[in-house]
Amino acid sequence: MTAPRSPAARAAELRLRLEDANYRYHVLDEPNIPDVEYDRLLRELDELETAHPELVTPDSPTQRVGNAPSAKFAEVRHAIPMLSLGNAFSDGEVQDFVRRIADRLDRPLPKFSAEPKLDGLAISLRYEHGAFVQGATRGDGTKGEDVTANLRTVKAIPLRLRGGKDGHDPLKLRGKDWPAVLEVRGEVYMPRAAFEQYNEHARLHGGKVLANPRNGAAGSLRQLDPRITAQRPLAFFAYGVGLVEGGELPDSHSATLAQLREWGFPVSNLTEVVEGADGLLDYYRRIGERRDALPFDIDGVVYKLDDFDDQREMGFVSRAPRWAIAHKFPAQEQATTVEAIEIQIGRTGAATPVARLAPVQVAGVVVTNATLHNADQIARLDVRVGDSVIVRRAGDVIPEVVAVIAERRPADALPWTMPATCPVCGSEIVREEGEAVWRCSGELSCPAQRKETIRHFASRRAMDIEGLGDKYVETLVDAGLVRGVADLYRLTRDQLLQLKLVLDADTPDALAASVQPHLPPEGSGAVLAAIQRLDAADEGWRAAALAQSIAFAWNPKKIATKWADNLVAAIDRSRDAALERLLFALGIQHVGESTAKALALWFGDLDLIRRLPWPLYKRVPDIGGEVARSLGHFFEQAGNQQAIDDLLTAGQVRIRDGHPPSAKLRDGLHLATLLVEAEIPTITNLRAQALTEVLPTAAGIVDAGPEAFTAAGLPEASAAALRDWLEQPGHPKLLLDGEAAIASLLALAPEADTAQAGPLDGRTVVLTGGLASMSRDEAGAKLEALGAKVAGSVSKKTHLVVAGENAGSKLAKAQELGIEIWDEAQLLAFLERHA
To answer: What share of the chain is helix, strand, coil (3-state, %, to 5)?
Structure first.
């Protein structure tokens, strides 16, 4: 059995751990333990030194506020030390604090200024004759770091104080309203929303993600280059004063804060003057209730005797004032262990890694899961199963892993990699170049994406199923009546009427009462009893009720049926679909209305489009590699193909405007173009043409080696790159399938367009403003029928802008670029001439 450590040995160990934590946080900006653990260690050391005064050393963390200043900045010695505050963690400690003051002042209800304790970086600002001359961090309380240049970039900090005007020069401020020398103490912090935006930008662009807003504020002020600080979203609140010379301040803390606000300093509007322990605890609870909704992080509240004479009477202990204390909230950071890393698929297919954690209480809530955002974040943090990590929870924000405690890592912990397939539907998980997010490519077939897929499919610009609102979709999916888009075409009037009853009912009993008039007498008792057994506290009770198979005999006097008839009619109308609408309705990543329209125009047939190898989509103007690969991934998923088959089976959906591929496709439909469109490294048009003159078939290229490629005229580097490309899984098949698809397209596409060229062929038109005679969609369709490409924005490639009423920036840009502009009368005249 290990012998218990002596107080001296434990104190030495605690000092080392606390100094290391201070160094990592203040110097390296890389915190390695959560706040609650630091506080616990500091209190343990304080208690040891109180019990054994001989153990106190001058360099003990209990004898100073923070860490020594960094050698990177000049040293500033504070004229009046910036001392820390004692901490209270319970109501009893607050009551003891007030009792000591009341006894010393002989006043039963002393007045306090109560204010939120911001989670930022404490600083001191020195003003001379109203001008900001120096700013410093708190450092060790006696001396800090000169960060004047960085503080000048914080817009919330006034560079010159507000005050009266000089009579001789109204633009010059006179200094009699403030002391000749004034030191203002306060907190630089990073607002929550700005912190999240900064981190999101960092994740997307491979930058350093900040651990928390306080770390962000501290790191920002300690940048050697002030231009970097200027890019950080920093804010400031003043909370007190230090040195004051050549002037006087009000006689209380609250009045001084009011004066500082008049001089131009931001001061928290949450500050209040309260009386006694009850007033302090009431304030603590009220601020605690508002904590989650505040725009900035706080880790507690601060109580200060309001009257400065009372403060002087109470005095100081060695490292803190007796007249002030910080009442801390439950910690928002804790350490725990990662038990697993799983993938969660969102409604848009985004694959988000989630850490399954050993349960830990953070900010009063037991946390078992935490987001890891994306694979890049995992790589940056190097999170592994078995790691000890710091977890943060702020308000209603989903808990997140912010740091790994590397020294506690198990020896067998392995780096994590993104799984290849979706855990929900088995489709491929893909990540496009330049994207931070990985996505499940099984859009139509993935249950996790089902509701979003159906909403989009039914939307006005897709299949336009009018009347199918979000609440209907939610309940139909939850009840299992709609498992995919094809199921929309199997919905009956009875099911929709039952759906309306379910959504209108507040409780199962209310639903039973509304259902009863529509049931046949025989068997109705069992149906009603089954509904009444549902638990109203269960959020899924409505879906469970809808899932029950019930025979209805609708009483038209007790229910409105027209809306259900209208919805059934809207579903029926959408069965005869334009190809471009159906393609858009499928919800393929990056395929918007204009891309769907282009695919329909150039290929004309859904069965053809869904079988093409991805490089051939790039034969359509304005479709690049990203969109083409997205189309390829979508159609490669068996679940998506099955969903399309289900839509087309038995006439559920009929495409009304199919046609042969455009004759324009024939230009460039050959093997050399396929090689280039497949994005094989170093294979240019000239090299592909030279290669296919010697090796004219895909099979010949697949079977050949680098020597044959160099013999065909490729440089050695290009020959090696082509061979490497062909050795990757799926690439030979892509080439062979592409060659077969080219043959099919050439067989289907006419030799030349038989239709006469439209008057707007090759011209790009932009519509802006309101039209009185038709909608913009109708006008766009008429223009496209005459050969135009209708675009959404004005650029140098725009040929014509049609400007209706209240046309805005697009019209202005067209005028700036000298583009031809028509009004509605000119448009109508043109359409009439070419009707």
So the answer is: 45, 20, 40
37 is in an annotated binding site: yes
- The verdict on whether residue 440 carries a ligand-binding annotation is no
* pLDDT at residue number 4: 61
Tell whether residue 84 is among the known ligand binding residues.
yes
Architecture of domain 7-63: Orthogonal Bundle (1.10)
What is the pTM assigned to this prediction? 0.61
| Residue 412 Rama label (left phi>0; alpha psi -120 to 50; beta) | alpha
Give me 505's structure tokens: 């009912």
245 annotated ligand binder: no
Class of domain 579-748: mainly alpha
Could you give the 3-state DSSP secondary structure of residue 308?
A: helix
Q: What pLDDT is recorded for position 100?
A: 94
Q: Is 446 annotated as a binding residue?
A: yes
Q: Do domains 86-328 and 333-418 have the same CATH topology?
A: no
Cα distances (Å, whole numbers) of residue 190 to 78, 121, 236 = 25, 10, 8
Provide the CB-side half-sphere exposure for 220 (13 A, CA).
Answer: 30
DSSP letters along 780-834, please?
A: HHHHHHTTPEEESS--TT--EEEE-BT--HHHHHHHHHT-EEE-HHHHHHHHHHT
The answer to whether the CB of 221 falls within 8 A of the CB of 137 is yes
CB neighbours of residue 428 within 10 Å: 14
Q: What are the per-10-residue average pLDDT scores of the chain (835 residues)? A: 72 83 61 79 86 79 54 84 87 94 93 94 93 91 89 88 54 62 95 87 75 80 81 91 92 94 91 96 94 88 95 84 91 88 88 92 83 85 93 71 90 92 91 80 89 93 92 89 93 91 91 91 86 89 88 86 92 95 93 92 95 96 90 93 90 90 89 95 94 95 94 93 95 96 94 68 88 84 82 87 88 89 89 82
Residues 306/276, Cβ–Cβ less than 8 Å: no
Q: Which fold has domain 764-833?
A: Rossmann fold (3.40.50)
Question: In terms of Cα–Cα distance, which of 387, 385, 396 is closest to 362?
Answer: 396
267: Cβ contacts below 8 Å, ≥ 6 apart = 237, 238, 239, 257, 258, 260, 261
Helix (H, G, I), strand (E, B), or coil: what is residue 112? strand
Active site residue 143: no
Query: Does 303 belong to an annotated binding site?
Result: no
Which pLDDT score, from 0 to 100, does residue 1 have?
A: 44
Q: Which of 111, 117, 471, 733 is catalytic?
A: 117
The one-letter amino acid at 300: G
Q: Which of 182, 70, 85 is nearest to 137 (CA)?
A: 70
Report the C-alpha gap between 317 and 702 in whole angstroms: 83
Superfamily of domain 333-418: Nucleic acid-binding proteins (2.40.50.140)
Please spell the DSSP secondary structure of 140-159, one letter per residue: TSSEEEB-HHHHTT-TTS-S
pLDDT for res 457: 95
Please report how the helices 638-648 and 625-636 are oriented relative to each other, as an axis angle in degrees rounded to 10: 70
Q: How far apart are CA 480 and CA 33, in angstroms?
A: 47
CB 394 within 8 A of CB 297: yes
User: Based on the number of CB atoms within 10 Å of its own CB, is 667 exposed (0-12), middle (13-18) or buried (19 or more)?
Assistant: exposed
Tell me: is residue 241 an annotated ligand-binding position. Answer: no
- State yes or no: 466 annotated in a binding site: no
Alpha carbons within 13 A on the beta-carbon side of 650: 5
Domain ranges for the chain, please list them.
7-63, 86-328, 333-418, 465-573, 579-748, 764-833
39 labeled binding residue: yes
User: Helix, strand, or coil here: 356?
Assistant: strand
The pLDDT value recorded for residue 164 is: 47
Q: How deeply is 659 buried, as exposed, middle or buried, from its count of CB atoms within 10 A (0-12, 13-18, 19+)?
A: exposed
Question: Would residue 821 be called left, alpha or beta, if left means φ above 0 and alpha means ψ between -120 and 50 degrees?
Answer: beta
601 carries a ligand binding annotation: no
CATH homologous superfamily for the domain 86-328: DNA ligase/mRNA capping enzyme (3.30.470.30)
